[in-house]
């Protein structure tokens, strides 16, 4: 798969996740973090299994033999990440949660460097810094000093834990042997649902008190962030590595602002400027500039001969 296609998948992937923040804010007010996570993946897991069966045609006997890895992936990327994220929103604002999650690419790059031995160039480090700066411009409305004035609470700490869980999920997923991305996602989701089921039914849920808006929200979360994003993410991480894929997570606040604008909110100059910085950072981190410069040097040398 070409890198341009992978980058497109990552952009769409994070667009779907941005919508998850918008709809999730409505849903979390009416459903517990456990039931949001369980209901999302109880449906999505079987859809993903069907897609995997017909599209990737895996050897299910060989797949099942790696069940210990799927338990870990299910706990990290499905149970842990989602429940901690929604629990964090009970204690902190969406802005604080997004601010903490903006450090995800940096965490991803550091973990990938030590656990996967993935190299990071100086230009890529610059790209990570620019993208993070762009996110901070968006979140602080142009007042960068506001970052140091935020009072961090339990929710912020939980959000940082969620970022670490997502990082470990991405790295562990890349180490699966001989299992294609959709199959891996489906199996991890299935194991997560099985692990959550006893606790979800013990907690219970009053469906009569769930509004139509919350139902629309959970439906969106099942179809796009749960199915589309996870499939695209796994494909992308395997193609270009966790550190390069991780930088695209900085697009989430930008897309969140755009979605909010379509719902009637005003887009500010700081959001536009911050968005530009994010996209420049993505351009540097993916290595496009390095390849373009290298190609230019080759052409110049050929012209001199």
From TrEMBL:
<feature type="transmembrane region" description="Helical">
    <location>
        <begin position="95"/>
        <end position="116"/>
    </location>
</feature>
<keyword id="KW-1133">Transmembrane helix</keyword>
<keyword id="KW-0812">Transmembrane</keyword>
<feature type="transmembrane region" description="Helical">
    <location>
        <begin position="181"/>
        <end position="201"/>
    </location>
</feature>
<feature type="domain" description="EamA">
    <location>
        <begin position="8"/>
        <end position="139"/>
    </location>
</feature>
<feature type="transmembrane region" description="Helical">
    <location>
        <begin position="213"/>
        <end position="233"/>
    </location>
</feature>
<feature type="transmembrane region" description="Helical">
    <location>
        <begin position="67"/>
        <end position="89"/>
    </location>
</feature>
<dbReference type="Pfam" id="PF00892">
    <property type="entry name" value="EamA"/>
</dbReference>
<comment type="similarity">
    <text>Belongs to the EamA transporter family.</text>
</comment>
<feature type="transmembrane region" description="Helical">
    <location>
        <begin position="151"/>
        <end position="169"/>
    </location>
</feature>
<dbReference type="InterPro" id="IPR000620">
    <property type="entry name" value="EamA_dom"/>
</dbReference>
<feature type="domain" description="EamA">
    <location>
        <begin position="154"/>
        <end position="286"/>
    </location>
</feature>
<keyword id="KW-0472">Membrane</keyword>
<feature type="transmembrane region" description="Helical">
    <location>
        <begin position="123"/>
        <end position="145"/>
    </location>
</feature>
<feature type="transmembrane region" description="Helical">
    <location>
        <begin position="245"/>
        <end position="263"/>
    </location>
</feature>
<protein>
    <submittedName>
        <fullName>Threonine/homoserine efflux transporter RhtA</fullName>
    </submittedName>
</protein>
<dbReference type="GO" id="GO:0005886">
    <property type="term" value="C:plasma membrane"/>
</dbReference>
<feature type="transmembrane region" description="Helical">
    <location>
        <begin position="269"/>
        <end position="289"/>
    </location>
</feature>
<keyword id="KW-1003">Cell membrane</keyword>
<dbReference type="InterPro" id="IPR037185">
    <property type="entry name" value="EmrE-like"/>
</dbReference>
<feature type="transmembrane region" description="Helical">
    <location>
        <begin position="34"/>
        <end position="55"/>
    </location>
</feature>
<dbReference type="InterPro" id="IPR050638">
    <property type="entry name" value="AA-Vitamin_Transporters"/>
</dbReference>
């Amino acid at each position: 798969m070409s890198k341009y296609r992978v980058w497109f998948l990552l952009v769409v992937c994070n667009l779907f996740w941005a919508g998850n923040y918008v709809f999730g804010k409505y849903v979390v007010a009416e459903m517990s973090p456990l039931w949001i996570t369980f209901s999302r993946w109880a449906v999505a897991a079987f859809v993903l299994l069907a897609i995997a069966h017909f599209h990737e045609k895996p050897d299910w006997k060989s797949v099942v033999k790696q069940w210990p890895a799927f338990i870990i992936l299910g706990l990290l990327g499905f149970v842990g990440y989602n429940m901690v994220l929604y629990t964090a929103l009970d204690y902190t604002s969406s802005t604080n949660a997004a601010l903490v999650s903006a450090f995800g690419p940096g965490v991803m790059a550091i973990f990938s460097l030590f656990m996967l031995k993935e190299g990071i160039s100086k230009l890529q480090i610059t790209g990570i810094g620019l993208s993070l700066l762009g996110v901070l411009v968006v979140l602080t409305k142009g007042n960068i000093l506001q970052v140091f004035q935020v009072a961090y609470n339990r929710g912020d700490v939980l959000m940082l834990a969620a970022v670490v869980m997502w990082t470990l999920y991405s790295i562990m997923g890349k180490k699966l042997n001989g299992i294609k991305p959709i199959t891996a996602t489906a199996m991890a989701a299935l194991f997560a649902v099985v692990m959550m089921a006893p606790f979800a039914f013990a907690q219970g849920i009053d469906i009569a008190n769930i509004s139509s808006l919350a139902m629309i929200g959970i439906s969106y979360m099942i179809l796009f962030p749960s199915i589309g994003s996870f499939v695209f993410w796994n494909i992308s991480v395997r193609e270009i590595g966790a550190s390069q894929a991780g930088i695209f997570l900085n697009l989430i606040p930008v897309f969140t602002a755009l979605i909010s604008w379509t719902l009637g909110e005003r887009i500010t100059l700081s959001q536009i400027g911050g968005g530009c910085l994010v996209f420049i950072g993505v351009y540097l981190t993916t290595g496009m500039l390095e390849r373009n410069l290298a190609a230019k040097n080759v052409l110049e040398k050929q012209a001199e001969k």
